[in-house]
């Protein structure tokens, strides 16, 4: 009995000794875990700490304070790799949060000027071109921006050609707009913009009074993309050309076969008008 009591006492003593070690070890682990982020933060450079703070403020909706931090990176640490990134984010705040596009444009242009060759420049150029084209409506200047992007880019070049063509169209330079679209098709015949390009090119050819060429583009559009919304409009346009060419029965048939036209009242008006013209011609005979 005494022997068993001694064994039990020794076991209890060992357990108590082990228990005394567990709490200090746990405390040390907790302290170490808490110290890691502090240590990591201390290891960061001043621009990195500012950038982290700016991101935190931006995520909390404190836009003015975040922009101030982004701007301070650019002004205080212009040689930092984060300076162009911060400048771009400041430009986006002007552009999208504050809706002050002129101020945003200045930030984008400064980024392009001070950090040419940096990966952020392309996005800044695209944003600047968008402001110049859509907000300022300075289409000639926008062409210059898109052309620079085209000269520097290896991606999305078909989209840049399309933007340039659209700018020329808005300047009423229809022949140059068509040439840009033709260049797009020559370089990127499988472009995802093909349906839009065929429709726009056909419309430009019509404006240049090149009716047969316009017909060919719209017919190609209809054959390749029969369900596309542009194809529906192309069918309507072809029917109009038939009508204008006095091919009234063919035009009527095409109007009547047209489905899902977005302006049904106009379509019905065309059909009724053509029926009257055909009836009048028959009476005259």
From TrEMBL:
<feature type="repeat" description="TPR">
    <location>
        <begin position="195"/>
        <end position="228"/>
    </location>
</feature>
<dbReference type="InterPro" id="IPR056836">
    <property type="entry name" value="ARM_TT21_4th"/>
</dbReference>
<dbReference type="Pfam" id="PF25068">
    <property type="entry name" value="ARM_TT21_4th"/>
</dbReference>
<keyword id="KW-0175">Coiled coil</keyword>
<feature type="coiled-coil region">
    <location>
        <begin position="204"/>
        <end position="258"/>
    </location>
</feature>
<keyword id="KW-0677">Repeat</keyword>
<protein>
    <submittedName>
        <fullName>Tetratricopeptide repeat-containing protein</fullName>
    </submittedName>
</protein>
<keyword id="KW-0802">TPR repeat</keyword>
<dbReference type="InterPro" id="IPR011990">
    <property type="entry name" value="TPR-like_helical_dom_sf"/>
</dbReference>
<dbReference type="InterPro" id="IPR019734">
    <property type="entry name" value="TPR_rpt"/>
</dbReference>
<feature type="domain" description="Tetratricopeptide repeat protein 21A/21B fourth ARM">
    <location>
        <begin position="138"/>
        <end position="251"/>
    </location>
</feature>
């Amino acid at each position: 009995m005494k022997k068993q009591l001694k064994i039990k006492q020794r076991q209890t003593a060992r357990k108590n000794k082990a228990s005394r070690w567990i709490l200090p070890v746990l405390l040390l682990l907790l302290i170490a875990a808490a110290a890691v982020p502090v240590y990591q933060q201390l290891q960061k450079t001043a621009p990195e700490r500012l950038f982290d703070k700016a991101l935190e403020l931006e995520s909390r909706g404190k836009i003015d304070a975040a922009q101030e931090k982004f701007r301070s990176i650019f002004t205080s640490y212009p040689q930092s790799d984060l300076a162009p990134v911060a400048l771009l984010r400041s430009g986006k705040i002007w552009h999208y949060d504050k809706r002050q596009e002129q101020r945003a444009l200045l930030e984008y242009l400064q980024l392009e000027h001070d950090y040419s060759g940096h990966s952020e420049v392309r996005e800044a150029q695209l944003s600047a071109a968008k402001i110049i084209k859509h907000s300022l409506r300075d289409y000639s200047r926008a062409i210059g921006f898109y052309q620079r992007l085209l000269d520097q880019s290896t991606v999305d070049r078909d989209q840049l050609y399309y933007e340039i063509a659209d700018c020329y169209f808005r300047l009423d330079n229809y022949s140059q707009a068509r040439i840009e679209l033709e260049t797009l098709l020559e370089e990127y015949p499988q472009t995802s913009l093909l349906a839009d390009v065929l429709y726009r090119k056909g419309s430009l050819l019509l404006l240049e009074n090149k009716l047969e060429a316009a017909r060919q583009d719209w017919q190609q559009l209809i054959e390749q993309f029969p369900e596309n919304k542009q194809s529906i409009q192309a069918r309507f346009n072809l029917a109009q050309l038939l009508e204008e060419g006095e091919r009234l029965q063919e035009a009527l048939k095409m109007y009547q076969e047209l489905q899902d036209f977005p302006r049904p009242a106009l379509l019905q008006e065309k059909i009724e008008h053509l029926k009257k013209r055909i009836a009048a011609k028959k009476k005259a005979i």
